[in-house]
Amino acid sequence: MLDAFSRSVVSADAKTAAVGAGDIAALRQYVAEGNKRLDAVNAITSNASCIVSDAVTGMICENTGLIQAGGNCYPNRRMAACLRDGEIILRYISYALLAGDASVLDDRCLNGLKETYIALGVPTQSAARAVAIMKASATAHIGETNTPALGGTKFRKMETAQGDCSALVAEAASYFDRVISAVA
Fold first, then answer.
1. What does 43-105 look like in DSSP terms, one character per residue?
2. 56, exposed or middle or buried, with CB in 10 Å at 0-12, 13-18, 19+?
3. pLDDT value at residue 67
């Protein structure tokens, strides 16, 4: 797994050069935005079980055959596996967001995931749809676009650093898109 610092060093080493001024400027920006990055990861991890269960519920509402006899979320152990997989995917996305690098997501989560799902008979379109729903929820938490009207009685306001988080929202969205394209 590479973080922003390791990636700069590896890149410079591959070019047999010192870390350049552009890399140093990017690292300064990475450090300056550190609290926002930590808040974004906290927003995901603090709401992980809700994000995953809502995504699986949404996926099932769109395809009720998944919970009927013979469906891929029937019986309970298959539903539990679906929820477990969603939490694992979300965990690796949070790792990638924290590191500012997708290598941990690619290496430890996505490598061979589609092939495994196909071998197990998991409908990849449904898995991709659940990840898309997780993306919408997680990016809403990061960008603080979730509201009491949308959250109802379960709304929880996160204490976050002030400022524009659109770059982190876009970064997190790109990690979800990686997962979607890997399984679809």
1. HHHHTHHHHHHHHHHHHHHH-GGGGSTTSTT-SHHHHHHHHHHHHHHHHHHHHHHHHT-SHHH
2. buried
3. 87
**3-class SS at 3?**
coil
Q: Could you report the per-residue pLDDT of 25-84, keeping only the tens digit for each?
A: 988 888 888 889 999 999 999 999 999 999 999 999 999 988 888 888 888 999 999 999
For 138-181, how does the pLDDT look when each residue is reduced to its tens digit (9 = 90+)?
999 998 876 666 666 666 665 555 678 899 999 999 999 999 99
Q: What is the pTM of this model?
A: 0.83
Q: Rg of the Cα trace of the chain? A: 18
What pLDDT score was predicted for residue 7?
Answer: 83
Can you give the residue ranges of every domain in the chain? 1-32, 35-183
Cis peptide bond prior to 75, omega within 30° of 0: yes
CATH fit for domain 35-183, picks 2.60.40.2310, 3.40.50.880, 1.10.490.20, 3.50.50.60: 1.10.490.20
pLDDT of residue 159: 58
CA atoms within 13 A on the CB side of 104: 20
